[in-house]
Amino acid sequence: MKAFRKAAAIGILIGICATFFAGCETIRTEVEQQWVDEMNEIYEDDELTYLCDSGSGFMGGSARNEAVVRSKKMPDDYIVLQKKDGKLISNYNNHLYAKESDEYIAEYLEDYFDVDSIEVKYTPDEGKTELDNCSFKKYVKKYLHFDYVKVELIKRDGNFPSNDEMVEILTNIVKDRDEKCKMMVTCYKYKKTKNSDRGLRHYYLTMNGPRDIEFISVTEGDERGQTMLVENYTW
Length: 235
Hints:
The N and C termini lie far apart (76 Å). The strands form 2 sheets. The protein has a 6-stranded mixed sheet with strand order 5-7-8-9-10-11. It has a 5-stranded antiparallel sheet with strand order 1-2-3-4-6. Helices cover 36% and strands 29% of the residues. It has 6 helices and 11 strands. It has 2 domains: 2-89, no CATH class; 94-234, no CATH class. The chain is an alpha+beta fold.
């Protein structure tokens, strides 16, 4: 009898918890739907649909209070939306201007690298901006930062800069940007393909803040260890 009562009590508790969390989930869904409604008012040239919270909820994990949104304009992209410090922020603009950002940064870097071609993948660490139906020109000025830029340099003939020269180039870039930067630069002697090796050299630059380089390192070819070229440099 005691075992039966204990099992019944546990069952009731589970039912109460399930009802409570279901109620919380409903409230969260309604709030996040309101966020998407606000987002649609700003991006009037798109059609945005609320899908779910980016977490898996009570039974499958922790809800994140971050909405997953489907964009009619970019149906294959993973768009998220959340409220931070009272403002709605999203990675929408980063997806919207992804191609233009890569091209802009590649062109920007042409002034620093004497190579055949430069390919860039911009994946900002701070992946969300405020909701702003802005032009690309405004996006560059206000939101685009070198906070994670992956660069592939391709030079078929001649030599790449030495390690010392690369340190000077990377330092000049971040000094000119005057912001916290994070970059990975890989050197290739030919057009990189899916089955090609990992490149001749890989340079990594991270910063603690503007005018404060945490380190610049290099990895040679397929080696796993990094060689530190610069550490804790400020100006």
